[in-house]
Design a protein that fits this description.
Elements (H helix, E strand, L loop, with lengths): L7 E3 L2 E7 L7 H4 L8 E5 L9 H7 L4 E5 H9 L4 E10 L6 E4 L14 E4 L5 H14 L7 E4 L14 E3 L6 H6 L5 E3 L10 E3 L4 H12 L4 E8 H6 L1 H18 L12 H17 L9 H4 L9
Parallel strand pairs: 2-3, 2-4, 7-8, 7-10, 8-9
Antiparallel strand pairs: 1-2, 4-12, 5-12, 6-10, 6-11
Helix pairs in contact: 3-9, 4-9
């Protein structure tokens, strides 16, 4: 059973069960360089942060949790009691995550129509972004590809579309690709350093630049959500969490020309609008949503 939320008052403030990944900008919150007398963030020990997402969506296991943006949008459409905070913890161009066999016949994204593509879960955020790119740049709809998935969505109510099939238990993406059972795969942030694999996009960096030229954003992977009851009963705690995340970024993140760790509703809305369009086009939502729906439940004064 997943651990349950442990919100209670402690000597160092409101004790909040917290699931955030191992990033330079989160490290100051973990090691005490950024602290608070209002909230006490108790970090869960997770081998991979994506293992927090399903428990957060299904049982609201944590008071504060990192969450993939496709997961959050899907969860919100199913009326899960979560509130999104206007802060990014992970963002990147997605093209390097689409891989094929180094000696395979795939020469570019245009070759994927009718091919077999594996992805951990159909609703995975990286897969959502790549499907959006395939449709937008190459005219390849999601239904034009034969998708293979390996696990359910984080939102239990969602079922894969009819053009996706489930891999045999015990299978994995890379092994199926190397065995010729898949033509391409979508991985996550950790791209395998394997000479037997190569990117489907011949020049992923150039493709990322093309995405930037078209949209002016770095695609969001993960943001932060809190339980609805926490936002309702302790709005000051939400403000404090955001203060701490801002301070962590100042201490731990390296300056970049394009800031992928944007903060604030206005700054985030262009990227969220595109993500919302992609998830809607791909049938991932239970109901139509607007940008205002995304911020529902956010305490007053959070901008």
């Amino acid at each position: 059973m997943p651990e349950q939320s442990s919100t209670h008052a402690g000597e160092s403030g409101l004790v909040l069960s917290t699931a955030l990944g191992q990033y330079p900008h989160i490290a100051p919150l973990r090691d005490g360089r950024v602290s608070s007398t209002i909230v006490d963030l108790q970090f869960a020990n997770l081998p991979n942060i994506n293992r927090a997402f399903a428990p957060m969506v299904r049982e609201q296991t944590y008071d504060v949790s990192e969450i993939a943006i496709a997961t959050f949008l899907q969860a919100k459409s199913y009326a899960k009691p979560l509130v999104l905070l206007p802060v990014i913890v992970a963002a990147r161009f997605q093209e390097p995550a689409l891989l094929c066999a180094a000696d395979g016949e795939i020469r570019g994204p245009q070759d994927l129509e009718g091919k077999r593509v594996g992805v951990r879960a159909y609703s995975q955020t990286t897969g959502m972004w790549i499907r959006g790119i395939l449709r937008e740049r190459y005219g390849i709809d999601a239904a034009d590809v034969r998708w293979t998935t390996f696990e359910d969505a984080h939102v239990a109510e969602y079922s894969d579309p009819p053009w996706a099939t489930r891999a045999e238990p015990g299978s994995d993406l890379v092994s199926m690709l190397k065995a010729g059972k898949l033509d391409a795969i979508i991985v996550g942030n950790d791209v395998p350093a394997d000479p037997g694999l190569r990117p489907v996009f011949p020049d992923p960096a150039a493709s990322g630049e093309e995405f930037w030229s078209r949209h002016g954003i770095v695609p969001i992977n993960h943001m932060v959500a809190v339980r609805q009851d926490l936002a309702d009963t302790h709005p000051q705690a939400v403000h404090e969490i955001l203060r701490m995340l801002d301070a962590g970024k100042t201490l731990g993140a390296r300056p970049q020309v394009r800031d992928p760790l944007l903060r604030g509703k206005d700054a985030l809305e262009p990227c969220l609008a595109l993500a919302l369009r992609y998830v809607s086009e791909q049938g991932l939502l239970a109901r139509p949503m607007t940008l205002s729906d995304i911020w529902q439940g956010l305490p007053e004064g959070v901008g």
